[in-house]
Amino acid sequence: MPVLWVDVTDLLHYLGQHNRPSGIQRVVSELGRALVECAPEHIRFVRRFAGPYDFETVSWLDIKSLFSTTAEKPVPREQTRTSLPSPHDPGPFTPPQGRLALLKASADMQAATFRHLNRLTGSLAGRIRRAVRHRSRHHHASFLHTDSGALLSELARPGDIFLVPGSPWDFSDYARTVRWLRDSRRMTFGLLIHDMFPIFNPEWCDRGVIASFTAWHRTVLPLADHVFTTSTATARDVQNHARQERISLISEPVRIGVGTTLHNSVPGLRRPETLPPPGTYVLFVSTLEARKNHIQMVRVWRRLLEERGSANVPTLVFAGRVGWLVSDLMQQLEAMQWLGGKIRHIASPTDTELAFLHEGCLFTVFPSLAEGWGLPVSESLASGKPCLASNSTAIPEAGGLLTRYFDPENANDIFRVVSETLDHPQALTEWGERIRRTYRPPQWRDCARRILDQTGCQQS
To answer: Where is this region: Disordered (predicted)?
Structure first.
């Protein structure tokens, strides 16, 4: 039976460079776990360590360990933020021993990350020696179970499948990899596309991402034997892009959906004191970037405060790291003193903190202008919490009939939906009860099965 080789190069790179996994990284990790559960004898993971033909195996246990460590490791930061420091304000005095403690915590965090990455690396000479020793087909079966460091060029067989589930757009020579896989190794190539925003909505993206994303897909997409998408909306975008670029797709895009991972708070674990009290806030989980539309929620919350008064408006909590194209937003929040504390920013929350934040919120909001799926919406529902969300792109696919929608570009519409929800607390309670009673979270195993069915890999 064929083996499905999953490229996790960009996942490992991201986890080594960032404090917390973001949306695509969570999708890749959860999808990898589900693939292993569904077909453990036919799933292997690889990463690129040098040129376009140089891939080595990576143990799934190592990937899981690194992801878990990144999702929960302490990050030196202000635990919550209601205002930004002024350049004229030196801030609170930190004694020398305190500064040393902060430096040590930062160094320890970086050292832990590099220890995980080093376990995945090893010496090139050692990899080659191991590959030579296990070159024969007699050792093929046992070699597939090697933890890490074996060469894909020695293991791959005709008929195997190579899957890219992440975002390796920085490799401008990736088309060479695909041609080598297809022409020399006689493998098929699969590609999971999360969204096409750098092409269709470049105004929301970093200039470098636009260039690398566009060039990468222009050369790689025509070579894909299997194209998978997270949503029907993304599948339409892929087809539109192919028509515009006159790309002849080998096969039509297949929607696999996105599962939900429900992170419940651990029984007996005390709620962190840095989080706002339960029942006092509305939650917005997302990286702070232009496409996520935080600025619109700031306008809505300012109007709520003007019309209702501070005592009658819950706090709006932004939970996520600061991304790109939001410097103006952060400056405006500083100038407004974070609306007197009615907007708070919890930067890079751990999965445990996210579980507590979901558990204690009144409801969640997600006003994103465009999404390839809308993971915060389905995670809100999986937590039993009502969500008010954008009616744009794929978000209704994630929210279904249990979510209330608004036009993300219309502040009056958002204000109306938020106001109606706040005005009817009993209806909000009943809405939450209905979600907990009827919502069936999408399963990652179903996403994995669609890939395995399409590629012909056997399932357990």
So the answer is: 71-94
Q: Would you state the pLDDT for residue 459?
A: 64
Q: Do 316 and 342 form a contact (C-beta atoms < 8 A)?
A: yes
Residue 368 lies in a domain: yes
Element spanning 364, H or E: strand 364-366
Helix (H, G, I), strand (E, B) or coil at 287: coil
What's the CA gap between 230 and 254, in Å, rounded? Answer: 9
Residue 38's alpha-carbon distances to 178, 416, 446, 457, in angstroms, are 26, 45, 9, 10
* Segment 343-383, tens digit of pLDDT: 999 998 988 999 999 999 999 999 999 999 999 999 999 99
- How many other CB atoms are there within 10 angstroms of residue 266's CB atom? 10
395 in a structural domain: yes
Pairing outcome for strands 55-58 and 43-48:
antiparallel
The position carrying tokens 């401008």 is 172
Where are any strands of DSSP class E within 384-437?
A: 387-390, 404-406
Q: Please check whether residue 110 lies inside any domain of the structure.
A: no
SS3 406: strand
Integer CA distances (angstroms), 356 to 3, 15, 87, 273, 377, in order: 40, 23, 33, 11, 16
Encoding tokens for residue 118?
């080093």
As a whole number of angstroms, the distance between CA 82 and CA 175 comes to 46
* 3-state SS, residue 309: coil
Region of residue 290 (phi > 0: left; psi between -120 and 50: alpha; otherwise: beta): alpha
Instruction: Report the relative pairing of strands 364-366 and 387-390 from DSSP bridges.
Output: parallel
181-193 as b/e: b if 16+ CB within 10 A: bbeebebbbbbbb
Structural domain containing residue 303: 281-441
DSSP 433-455: HHHHHH--PPPHHHHHHHHHHHH
- Which of 393, 290, 292, 275 minimizes the C-alpha distance to 344? 275
Q: List phi, psi (to 5°) of 404.
A: -100, 140
Count of domains forming the chain: 2
Going by C-alpha positions, the residue among 22, 454, 2 that lies closest to residue 229 is 454
Does the residue 87 lie in any domain? no
Same domain, 251 and 351: no
Q: What angle, rounded to 10 degrees, do the helices at 375-382 and 23-38 form? A: 60
Asked if pLDDT for residue 152 goes beyond 50, the answer is yes
Strands (E) located in 49-183: 55-58, 161-164
Question: Do 233 and 286 sit in the same domain of this protein?
Answer: no
pLDDT at 76: 58
